[in-house]
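[Target chain]
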Amino acid sequence: MYTFQFLAAEAPASRRLAPTSLRAYFFMLLFLLPIMGLWPQSASYLDSVLQSERIRYQDAAYLLLLGAGLIDDELSPSEALRFYEERGWGLSRLSPQDELTLGGYSLMTMRVFELRGGPMYSLFPVRRYALRELRFRGLVQGRSAPGTPLSGERAVRILERTVRRYRETTA
């Protein structure tokens, strides 16, 4: 049986993958493929979300609602946002194109997946306590202040962890 190290040692230097490239491929296989299997997603849309430095409000609503299975993939992001706001979950003072912070995305996640919070979130369902709840549950990792800008890649990682946990509790 051949090991990866054996194969890498035999490959010409021009064909070897850098360790960071290997990590990127591993990340895609481990984290993104289960999410992509949840809904048929256009590759260009998912690429644009993953590559965005800051996720937009309507894109976050679209991803979260699809991940929760509340909308069909045929809806556009603007229609998904309208569905989100019609349920009374809307974030005040945000337009569809506004960039979302980690705290805002955490609050949206708590609402979409109907996650019950601890005492502080139950009394004050705001961004700060939503983020604390997700951090406590292990859904948000790394630097996590409510005002932190949120990239598309990090939003998808949080969604992936939430979907896995949500499926475990409902299965």
In short: Residues 1-17 have pLDDT under 50 and may be disordered. The radius of gyration is 18 Å.
